[in-house]
Amino acid sequence: MDIRGIDHIELYVADTREAAAYFGNGVGLWPRGQGGPETGLTGQRSLLLRHADIRLLLTSGLTADHPAATYVRRHGDGIAVVALAVADAAEAYAELLARGAVGELPPTTITSADAEIVIAEVAGFADVRHRLVERRRGGGDFLPGLAELPPVGAAENLLVEIDHLAVCVPPGQLAETVRGYREVFGFDEIFHEYMEVDGQAMNSTVVQSRSGRVTLVLLEPDTRRRAGQIDAFLAQHSGAGVQHLGLRTDDIIGAIGALRQRGVRFAHTPAAYYDDLETRVGRIDGPVAQLREFGVLVDRDHDGQLLQIFTESTHARRTFFLELIERRGARTFGSGNIRALYEAKERELAVTASARGLAATQEVTG
Question: 3-class secondary structure for 53-67?
């Protein structure tokens, strides 16, 4: 099965305009298509955003029984579909079903005046589906029921592509989820780590398509240790789901600076993190002072270094956020990558709790 990469990601959201304001004005993904009842999308409104090779489809349900509305009631805004680019959607669908996948939508051909695609869907994990997309001709942004929009906003190259998705699963489900992606989707297991931080612990396994273009970081809490942020995600999200979306950039400093100017907030990194940075990860190409200024985390694998930073979550449940990642030779993840995420989120949660406590004190004493 030829899985070539990620065609697009679909988020189910309460309000497409509100979500688009963050991803557009903040992150720089601009509208390229829109649809609703007037374009044949029954009971929903959708907006396609794009930046470089990153496509995000935002969908809101207009009726209480629409799948997007049901998803949002249960989970809040979040990723509901990971669409995979394939060479032959019908062939991939048949192969996946033969390997045990649950079919959600049989292969369907959709055409427009200048484009033709074939889509099919299978179950992924929890309430997340995989959409198989075969683009036969034309229409790089063409999706069913969407009317094309002229480009808006300045052309930018801050971001390049979707690097990975991080998925939280309930205790005891990691091995089963990994096995499903290996045996059904043909992914390879490329990394595994058990990590303990401040009395909390988790298992993480990274699986990747044979093409190397689809990467899932699967996270499971260790219930033998005290509850931590993975447990909190599972409770607030009401089950397994995508915790964050990793977006690759070739210039993380430039991307952070641009996104900060647009109002995007990033998780705080203590200055002490940089005191022995080069001792931990080796010589860094660029001034450590600049990394400190921008709060960039650094890790390494056998092939090189990777730089990363995590945004603060803008969701009421604190269940979804973004990561910016620059790969300087690194092709996988270093041993400190997951730990860096874990510790960064702990710092964000601590700051949030402190701010709430201060606000409560001022209210009482005010």
Answer: CEEEEEEEECCCCCH
